[in-house]
Amino acid sequence: MDVPVKDLGPNNNKLEAVKEGCPLFHCDLYDSEVVHKIAQIFLPGLATACVDNTTGGLFKDPSLVAVDMRKEMVEYLTQRSESYIAESMIQEDCPDIELSEHPTDIISDFIDDFISSKRNLFTRVSSWLLSENREDKIDDIVEEMEINGFWLMDRREAIAWTLLKNVDFKNTFYCKMKFDTTEELAEHGSKCIFRSVSCMNKDCTASFCAVHMEKHDSVCPLKVLPCEQKCSENIIRCEMDRHCITVCPMKLVNCPFYMVGCQCSIPQCMIGKHCQDFLYSHLHCILQIIHKEASEKDLKLRVELLEKSSSLAQLSETQDIRSLIFMVKELEAKVDPPEHVITN
Question: Which stretches does the record call TRAF-type zinc fingers (predicted)?
Fold first, then answer.
C-alpha cells in the first residue's frame, strides 16, 4: 500500500487562481532529474529509520514498522518542507549555520533529522551507528522493499515533486509560468526548458529535460566525435579510447629504431616519413652496432659514403633494425674497400 500524495496538482492550482483572479493554467513541468534523485533517497532513509528504531528490541522487526514509518516520514518531510522558507529566513541570521541550497541536499537533511528522531535508546547509547552490521541490515531492507514493490518509484516521485515545490522558492528547478488559455499553455509546453526531450544521437534512447540537453550531449556515449588524436575518422565517444590505442593511424609509437638509440615517439602513420627524415641518425645508430670500436669520425665518414650510394631510397624505406643492418653491411662491402677504412 502506497501513501497518498497530498499535493492536488494542477486542479488545485486552478482553484487558487480563480480565487485570486490570476491566470488559470500553470505549467507543471519540472526538472525530472532532480525529482528522481530526491525519490531515490527515500527508500534508504526509510530503511535506516526502521532499522534504528527496532534494533535491540526483542519483538520488533524493521519490516513490521515500515508501513507506519513511511506514513510518518512523508508527513514529517511535508511539514518540514512547508516551513522551510520560514526556517531558512531565521537561519540566515545565524552565521554559524550552513544552509543547503540544492533541493536534494535540503530533503536529504530533512531525512537525516527524521532518522535521528526515530532512534531508540539502544541505538543512541551503543556503538550501533558505526557498526558494519547496521549498513548491511539497511541494504537488506532496501533490497527487500524494492523486490516487493513496497514503495514504487512513481509514488515516490509524486511526493518528491511536492517537496521540491515547497523548498525551491527561487523556482530554479520547476517552471513557474502561468497562462490564461490552454492554447498559450500548449505553445509554451513545446518550448519550456523542463519539457522532456530525447537524445538526438543515433541509437541513444536517453530522455531528459531540455535544460539538461547540453550536459547529456557532453557525456553521451553514442555521440559521434572527431578523433581525439586528429586522424580523419569520426568515432562514437564510448569507442574513442579503444580506437586511439589500437587502430588509430595517429596513435603515438616508438621509432622502429628505438632499441638502437632513436628515442623519438611519432604517429604510426608518420613512420615512413620519420625514417626518411632521420635516415642519417638511424644509419649512425646501426653503424655503431656493426663497428663497435670505430671512432666518431670514422662513423660519420661511413654514413656519408652510404648516403652517396645508389641504394639511398631503399635505405630510407627500411623500417626494422635487422633489415637495415643487413643492407648496410651489404653496401659497405661495395662502397667501403679496405683502403678507405679509417683506423683510430
Answer: 216-267
Q: Which cell numbers in the block locate residue 7?
A: 499535493
* 44 and 116 together in one domain: yes
Q: Check whether residue 90 and residue 214 sit in a common domain.
A: no
Q: What is the dihedral of CA 134, 137, 141, 143, to 10 degrees?
A: 120
Domain coverage including residue 212: 192-219
* pLDDT digits 0-9 by tens, 215-248: 999 999 999 999 999 999 999 999 999 999 999 9
Strand partners, 252: 267
When divided into structural domains, the chain yields a total of 3
| Cα 14 from Cα 245, distance rounded (Å) | 59
pTM above 0.85, yes or no: no
Query: Which of residues 147, 167, 187 is at a domain's end?
Result: 187
The Cα–Cα gap between 80 and 86 comes to 10
Shared domain for 40 and 177, answered yes or no, is yes
Q: How far is CA 74 from CA 116, 238, 259, 321, in A?
A: 15, 41, 70, 75
